[in-house]
Amino acid sequence: MPNLLILGGTTEANALAKSVAGQGIPAIYSYAGRVDTPRPQPIPTRVGGFGGAAGLARYIRDHRISHVVDATHPFAAQMSRNAVNVCDATGIPLVALTRAPWASGAQDRWQHVPDIAAAVGALSGPAQRIFLAVGRMHLADFATQPQHHYLLRLVDQPQELPMPNRDVIVSRGPFSVEGDVALMERHNTELVVSKNAGGTGARAKLDAASALGVPVLMIDRPVLPQRTEFTSVPQVLDWLAHSGVNLGV
Ligand SMILES: NC(=O)c1ccc[n+]([C@@H]2O[C@H](COP(=O)([O-])OP(=O)(O)OC[C@H]3O[C@@H](n4cnc5c(N)ncnc54)[C@H](OP(=O)(O)O)[C@@H]3O)[C@@H](O)[C@H]2O)c1
Fold first, then answer.
1. Pocket flag, ligand 1, residue 230 (CB < 6 Å)
2. Where do the H-state alpha helices sit in 6-91?
3. Which of 109, 145, 175, 235 could staple 123 via S-S, CB 3.0–4.6 A?
4. Is the entire prediction scored with pTM above 0.85?
5. Is 31 in the pocket of ligand 1 (CB under 6 A)?
6. How far is CA 17 from the centre of its chain?
C-alpha cells in the first residue's frame, strides 16, 4: 500500500493534496507550523518540524511512508536538503513539485542579489520607502537597516516587529495587480524587495512595480541538491503511477 508524504505550505502542495484525495491515494500533508491557522486539507495533516534529517528519517520509517513529494516553497532550503539526504540514504523515492522562477521583462528594473544577507547589504544607502515582501522569518535581518520605512505584508498579525518605521498589512494572497498598484501608490513605494518565489499568487507586486516604474531588489533562489523536479500535479501523479502506485482506487 503506498503512503505519500507531502511536504507542504504552498499552493502546489494544496493542489496535489486535492488530487490525491480525489484519487483515494493514502497521503499525509506536512506543515512546518509557521502560520496561526494553516489551511485545512482534504487529507490527514501533521504540523511541526520533524527534528532534522534524523527526525525525518524516523518519521518516514514509523509512518511507513513509501514516497515523498517535496512541495515546499523554493526558499525552504533546509527542509528540501533534509528531504534529499534522507530519501537518498533510505531509498525512498522523492520528487519535488515546484514552480519556475520569475524572469524579468523589458519594462522591469530588477537588481539581483544571491541571498537575504546580500539584499540587506544592498539597502545600506539613504532612507527609502520599501515594500519588503519577504515574509515574517527574515525581518530581523532587515532591521539592521533601520533608516528605511518598510511596508510589510504578512499572513498573521505580528506580535512585535524589529524595525521602527513600518506599516503592516495582514493579508493572505493571491493579490491583484490593480490592488498592488493602489497599495504602492498609497504608500509611495520607491523599492520592492522580493524573493524569487515564482508562481502566480505573489506575482502581482512585480507587475505593479513594473507598471509604476518602481525598481525591484530580487533575491535569487537558494541552490538545492540534485533532485527530480516537476512543475505540475499530473506529472507527479504520472510518476506515482510509474513507481507502482495504483491510481484511481
Ligand atoms: N521560505 C518562504 O519564503 C516560504 C514562503 C511560503 C511558504 N513557506 C512554507 O513555510 C514552511 C517553512 O519554510 P521555511 O523557509 O522556514 O523552511 P526551511 O527553512 O527549509 O525549514 C526549516 C525547518 O522547518 C521545518 N519545516 C520546513 N518545512 C516543513 C514542512 N513542510 N513540514 C514539516 N517541517 C517543515 C523543518 O524542521 P526540522 O528540521 O525540525 O524537520 C526544517 O528543517 C514550508 O512548509 C514552506 O513550504 C515558506
1. no
2. 11-23, 52-62, 77-90
3. 145
4. yes
5. yes
6. 16
